[in-house]
Each structure stands twice: as structure tokens, then as C-alpha cells.
Write a structure and sequence with these properties.
This protein is of the alpha/beta class. A nine-stranded mixed beta sheet has the order 2-1-11-10-12-13-14-15-16, sandwiched between helices. A five-stranded parallel beta sheet has the order 4-3-5-6-7. Strands 17, 18, 20, 21 and 22 form a five-stranded antiparallel beta sheet that branches. The chain is 30% helix and 26% strand. GO terms for molecular function: 4-coumarate-CoA ligase activity; trans-cinnamate-CoA ligase activity.
């Protein structure tokens, strides 16, 4: 066996960019991208990507491993760069559009970006970020504006413009060949909700395997019509930027997830698939979804935060067929998927929703995923659905590592595993379920309280549309749960006494929140995750002092909601633990 060799005929480096020439060859005349009045075929998309890659190499002089950053919503240019940038041998860095100028500048500096593409809508933000970089004395990247393809605005920032680079490129030029599948393909930054964002580097191999395994886990067939409700900057659209090309599908691009626009896009394009964080379900329900049904089923892959079973049940009634996934930036997007079993179809909707709320089993690009004890032994926990530990992963889709951050790499990789920081259990059928982020576990009087379990109950309250629970300091118990809720009917509001009574009826009394805070909207980052750091800050301000620990009178006040403005709140002080 040892004499057998790797040859060009039997060994080609794995890369997700190979899906594009295949789409050109197999699906060339089929629609690839829809954006407003703009439509491209796969043949046109292939040519546009090659043209852009040509301009990056020949006109702008980009070299292997140079970083190209982009600040843009889900528009055709954002999609095309997922192929064109790595085709040029460079590394694509998609930047969260909801960051402020300081954070954008920090990413550009840390990534040492050579080129910065900016959508016209974010020119002001980009200009402020570039000024911060210039003031610091660091190198400022070249800038190219992405004008609106459907309705050009004429907005510019410098001389370079995306469509001009595409037009002037040579689609027949010989582009750099990938020699090592371990080479970097993209650079993504973590959300930074608890610390400074870290640069997560994906390999061509990891991105390829993650894409194909997720297509199988979701059972996405040929020629899907995929609606881009998930930001492409989030883990490269959970790899579906490449995956839709692999299946010869249609990319329906929209700039914002407004309910009317989402429902209109679904109806006009006969959308079959979409991905989103659970927060988008609330947007769709508020947009009239509770009383309407879709003309045809839409398959939805959801993740980013554990979706409450009650919320899944509501959106399933509309016609959205939900598959729950779990992942993180460091795992090249989804690492677990709740693969559906035929025997579950016979169960009542509420039971199906409960099963779908679990995170599931590992995708095929992972060699292993498990839950281990949080000690030196790192022993696998029993598969009893009760024993808790930290979810750990290993496999080719796990990141290469954090860019220029050896300390974080040492902490993340331990004992042959990648440590996720998430607390979970394994059910007897092998399905993993998250119970909390390790930092979100509330320790009250020596008892561990999972915030997600309290949130699950809150979501079942008929007047609650959204909820989040964090730890609040308490002079006697150390910590107690503090609940932040949003009323389903803003005009009628939500009754705090009813919420407390509902919680006491449906959970152990020591788990019942000791305060209920009403917000118009919960703070969320661009990935749809509740920004619990901000809620913890508010909870600390509302914590009872020692001399008031036994107060029972409900009081009303206002808290500063930062970017949400002044928010009316009502909190119930120190309800009885028993």
C-alpha cells in the first residue's frame, strides 16, 4: 500500500470554491441570484466572480493570505466575494454591520486588511472607522464602495467601485491554484458579547466539509430557493454561501428582515429554505404570521440561541418546518443538528416542538461531539438527560485557531477537544441539549439554575413574546434569577403578578425570578443573541441592598436602555424562595 502515491488525478485539495465552477457547468442557465429587479444565472455569477478575482490579483496586487474585509448586508456582491476573494488566493473577512466605528476599526487593524469593500449604506460608518485607524498610525486599507445594484446611488468613498472592478476583470485569466487545503479561506470575528472579539480562521478543508455535511444533515435537495434572512457575515452564512451553489439553488437576497419584505420574498420566489436566529420568528409572528399560513412549506434551519419549544410550536403552525442546529463561530457554523426521526411525526405538535428544541447530533464533518465533566478528568457524562457538563467538539470543521492569540488557543483546545463553554446534557438517544452558557448558570443558595429553563417557562406565558433571564446579586442567596420580558400585546402590556404566579406554578420555587423587568424590546446583537452582559448590568443596578432583602412591595421605575432609550420597568422585590 505504501507505494501508492498522491497524483493530480486522485488528490485535489478540498475547497468550497469548487462548488462554483460545478454550478456553472451543471446549472449554468438556472437562476443563481435574485435581488430586487436584478437576476443572474450561475454562468453569469461564475464569470463575475472570476472577473473580480482577476481584478484583485492583477489590478490591486493582492497576494496569498492577504485579508479582504467587507462591510455589507445580504447583497449580490457579498455573496460573490465568498468565491472571488479565495479564488484570488486571499482571505475573506466579513464584518458585522451592527458594530460601531471603534469595533470595525479594531477588526480591520487586527486582521491587517489590505482591501476594504463597503456597501454604500455603511460609508459613514466605514469612514469613521478608517479615520480611527489613520489617527492611530496603523496602515489604512484600500477602500472600494459597493453601490446598490438594483438602484444605484452614486455614493463613493475613494476611487474604487465594486462593479467597475468586476467589469474590468478578465474572466479567462489564470488564477492562483490552491495547493494546501489547510490554507485559510475566511476570517470571522466572534460576537464579543463578553470580551474583545477574536479572529477565527477557517481552512478550505474545514469549510468544504462543514458545507457538505450540513447539506446532508438538513437534507437540502437540488435546486432549492434560499432566502437570505441570516446575515452572510455570520459564519459565512453558516456555510450556505457555498452550499446553495453546491445544490444549484437560487439565492434570494434582501437587505433587511422586515416582515412584509420577508413574506413578499417568500411568495414571489417560491422560497423553500431559509436560516435564521429564533429572534426572526418573533419578527415574523409580529408581522401577522399568527393569523396567516404560508402557501407552501418553508424549511428553516435555526440556531444562535436555544429556541423555546413554545415559540417553535407557534411558527410551525404557520407552515415553517423547523430544524434546530447548534454551533459557534469556532466550529465553522453549525456543529450539531437535530436530525428528525420518522417516528416523531406521530407525536402531538407540542411534543415535536420539545424534541426540535434540542440541539441534536454532530454533523458529519465532526469526528466527535460530547459532553464532559468540567474537571481534569474530562470524563464523558452519562447519557441520562440529566448529568451536566461542558459540550466539546473535535473534527475537521473546527477552526484552525484564533488569529494572533496563542493564549486563547491554549484555553480553547484542551485534552484533544475544543471547549465550547456551553453546558449541556446527553439524552438516552444520543441527542445533546444545551442547558446554558457556563457563564449564564445562576448559582442561588448553592443550587444551580439554568437560565434557559426559566426562559422556557416564561415563553409559555400567554402575554410574553420574548424573555431572557440573568443572575442578579442577592444579599442572602448570593444570586437570584432576574427576568426581562417583552409583552406580546404592547398596548395591553404584561402583568408582573401574573408572570410570577405562572412561574411558581410551572417551576420549582427556588427557580422563580425575584424580579420581572418589562422592556419594549430586548437588546440583541446582529446574530440574534440576547446581549446578556447589558442585562446583567441592569440587574446589578436593581439588586436589593441587604437591608431591603425581604421587601415584598412591587415598585415601578425606569432604567436606561442604552441604545433602546429609557425603558419602563416593573420589578417585584425578593419573592419568597419557598
Amino acid at each position: 500500500m505504501d507505494q501508492l502515491q498522491k497524483r493530480p488525478a486522485n488528490y485535489v485539495p478540498l475547497s468550497p470554491i469548487t462548488f462554483l465552477p460545478r454550478a456553472n457547468a451543471v446549472y449554468g442557465d438556472r437562476t443563481s441570484v435574485v435581488y430586487g429587479r436584478v437576476r443572474f444565472t450561475w454562468r453569469q455569477t461564475h464569470e463575475r466572480c472570476r472577473r473580480l478575482a482577476s481584478s484583485l490579483v492583477r489590478t490591486l496586487g493582492l497576494r496569498r493570505n492577504d485579508v479582504v474585509s467587507v462591510l455589507a448586508p445580504n447583497v449580490p456582491a457579498m455573496y460573490e466575494m465568498h468565491f472571488a476573494v479565495p479564488m484570488a488566493g486571499a482571505v475573506l473577512n466579513t464584518v458585522n454591520t451592527r458594530l460601531d466605528a471603534k469595533a470595525v476599526a479594531a477588526i480591520l487593524r487586527h486582521a491587517e486588511a489590505k482591501l476594504f469593500f463597503v456597501d454604500w449604506e455603511y460609508v459613514r460608518l466605514a469612514s469613521d472607522a478608517l479615520q480611527i485607524i489613520a489617527d492611530s498610525g496603523a496602515p489604512v486599507p484600500l477602500v472600494a464602495v459597493i453601490d446598490d445594484l438594483d438602484r444605484p446611488t452614486g455614493v463613493r468613498l475613494g476611487e474604487l467601485e465594486y462593479e467597475a472592478l468586476v467589469a474590468h476583470g478578465d474572466p479567462n485569466v489564470e488564477l492562483p491554484q490552491l495547493e494546501d487545503e489547510w490554507d485559510a479561506v475566511t476570517l470571522n470575528y466572534t460576537s464579543g458579547t463578553t470580551s474583545a472579539p477574536k479572529g477565527v480562521v477557517y481552512s478550505h478543508r474545514g469549510a468544504y466539509l462543514s458545507t457538505t455535511s450540513l447539506l446532508m444533515a438538513w437534507e437540502m435537495g437540488a435546486e432549492p430557493v434560499y432566502l437570505w434572512t441570516l446575515p452572510m457575515f455570520h459564519c459565512n452564512g453558516w456555510t450556505f454561501t457555498w452550499g446553495v451553489a453546491a445544490r444549484g439553488g437560487v439565492n434570494v437576497c434582501i437587505r433587511e428582515n422586515r416582515p412584509a419584505e420577508v413574506y413578499r420574498a417568500i411568495a414571489r420566489n417560491n422560497v423553500t429554505h431559509m436560516c435564521c436566529a429564533p429572534v426572526v420568528f418573533n419578527i415574523l409572528l409580529e408581522g401577522g404570521g399568527d393569523t396567516a399560513r404560508l402557501g407552501a412549506p418553508v424549511h428553516v434551519l435555526t440556531g444562535g440561541a436555544p429556541p423555546p419549544a413554545a415559540l417553535l410550536e407557534r411558527v410551525e403552525r404557520i407552515g415553517f418546518h423547523i430544524t434546530h442546529a447548534y454551533g459557534l463561530t469556532e466550529a465553522t457554523g453549525p456543529a450539531l443538528a437535530c436530525e428528525w426521526r420518522a417516528q416523531w411525526d406521530k407525536l402531538p405538535l407540542s411534543d415535536r416542538a420539545r424534541l426540535k428544541a434540542r440541539q441534536g447530533v454532530s454533523v458529519l464533518s465532526l469526528a466527535d461531539a460530547d459532553v464532559v465533566t468540567n474537571d481534569a478528568k474530562m470524563a464523558r457524562v452519562p447519557h441520562d438527560g440529566k448529568s451536566r457538563g461542558e459540550i466539546v467538539l473535535r473534527g475537521s470543521s473546527v477552526m484552525k485557531g484564533y488569529l494572533n492569540n496563542p493564549e486563547a488557543n491554549e484555553a480553547a483546545f484542551r485534552g484533544g477537544w475544543f471547549m465550547t463553554g456551553d453546558v449541556g446534557v446527553v439524552h438516552p438517544d444520543g441527542y445533546i441539549e444545551i442547558k446554558d452558557r457556563s457563564k449564564d448558570v445562576i448559582i442561588s443558595g448553592g443550587e444551580n439554575i439554568c437560565s434557559t429553563e426559566v426562559e422556557e417557562v416564561l415563553f409559555r406565558h400567554p402575554d410574553v413574546a420574548d424573555a431572557a433571564v440573568v443572575a442578579m446579586p442577592h444579599p442572602h442567596w448570593g444570586e437570584t434569577p432576574c427576568a426581562f420580558v417583552v409583552a406580546r400585546n404592547k398596548a395591553a402590556g404584561v402583568c408582573e403578578d401574573d408572570v410570577m404566579a405562572f412561574c411558581r406554578k410551572h417551576m420549582a420555587h427556588f427557580m422563580v425570578p425575584k424580579k420581572v423587568v418589562v422592556y419594549d424590546v430586548l437588546p440583541r446583537n446582529a446574530l440574534g443573541k440576547v446581549e446578556k452582559v447589558k442585562l446583567r448590568d441592569e440587574a446589578r443596578k436593581l439588586a436589593p441592598p441587604a437591608q431591603k432583602a425581604k421587601a415584598t412591595k412591587a415598585t415601578k421605575t425606569t432604567v436606561s436602555g442604552g441604545r433602546w432609550g429609557e425603558q419602563p420597568v416593573a420589578h417585584v422585590m425578593a419573592m419568597s424562595r419557598l
